[in-house]
Write a structure and sequence with these properties.
27% of the residues lie in helices and 23% in strands. The chain has seven helices and 13 strands. The strands form three sheets. Strands 1, 4, 8, 9, 11 and 13 form a six-stranded mixed sheet that branches. Strand 2 and strand 3 form a beta hairpin.
Amino acid sequence: MFTAALIRLQKSWKSYKHRFVPWVVFNLSKNEKTLRQVTERSKDKLIPDERVSESLFKLFGTLLEKKSPVCLDHAALVHPTPCSTGEEVDGGYPARAMLQSLGFCIDRKPSTLPLAGTGVFVTRGFIPKGATCAMYPGTIYQPYEPILLQSLRNPFIFRCIDGVLVDGFDKGISKLVFRSCSGRDRIGPYETSDTSWLTRSPQNPLAVGQYINNCSNEKPANVCYQEYDVPDCFPIEFLQFLPNVNYSHDTKRPLRCVVLVSLRDITAGEELFSNYYTIVH
């Protein structure tokens, strides 16, 4: 009986460790190619925030247009999207919108890493180097806010360079907290965040970044994390597609999002692997 329990624990750990920060940092430090060193938060950006915004505007404008075909929103006209590719795409209108606006589709599938559980793959199209290719969803906690209960048995907490935390777990108390905060922040008829990432079918198809496994010495990184603070000019009608919400209603700083940016060209069929940055003083 003890042996069976030990085997279950070992299997659980092998799946969990690929998202466990101390294990990742300790093991990947053996190979400097798996770590990206930055001197400060402002130096972690591979691409400007404006390019991140441009990609999000393209996708969200297309999602809005396909979601409400009778009423073409002003934002969709301001941020026009390319013509349809003509391809049949599984995954409904979110996947079609992604392929149409960004030129690729991503989805969750069993990872190629042994016992790593779920991973994220490019299923159609092509991701060019320097493209915004995923978002890390979840509740945003400032460094001084309580997260102990939510962190228990939770392998999906991401720590930003400045100590801000993103809880990307889509189950248990983390799921309840996100839904509660999302409902609280609604502005009249406008939703200010997207809760569909908590389901199997997110309306924002980028919102699967928490399932991207960390790279290993055998599986080098092809994407990396980049922090992105939502600018004041972000269209209010696009907020409904953001998979993040502040834990506290009175947070004085812009909403933090974390996106993943491609480090090289990535083709259909490839799995996405991320790397961690380390701060160099």
